[in-house]
Amino acid sequence: MQESDRDPSDRARRIARAFIEAIPHGRALGMSVVDIGEGRAVIEMPYDTRLIGDPETGIIHGGAVSALMDTCGGAAVMAHPSGPVATATLDLRIDYMRGATPGAPILAEALCYHVTRTVAFVRAEARQAGEDGLVAAASGAFTLERAP
Asked: Where is the chain membrane-spanning (predicted)?
């Protein structure tokens, strides 16, 4: 057993980071883990012209924001102290508040606030550093698979 495996929160962080790094669309969108803790994750997605949804304004497509928030929610579940080994999205509701400012990265922060035997509930927000107001807000339910 590794020294870090004795600390459940460190184990959760390692699992959640591996979860993010293993997702191909996360890599394709340039997502990176900024912070991760017990049932909480912060992930950044850089501005990329390939993700523009409106060529006239340069605003990132809502689908990319949705993928960021979904991935961040899954990472928060994986970082939960209950020790999940896998998760998948059951339901995700996203409210888009405004278009993200072109040229700036988007940060998503998710919190896994309640866990049952098989389902985890998450709230998430997407913002841009140094700017007031939300880009989007989300709530979702994720499957929760634990080690046997």
From this structure: none
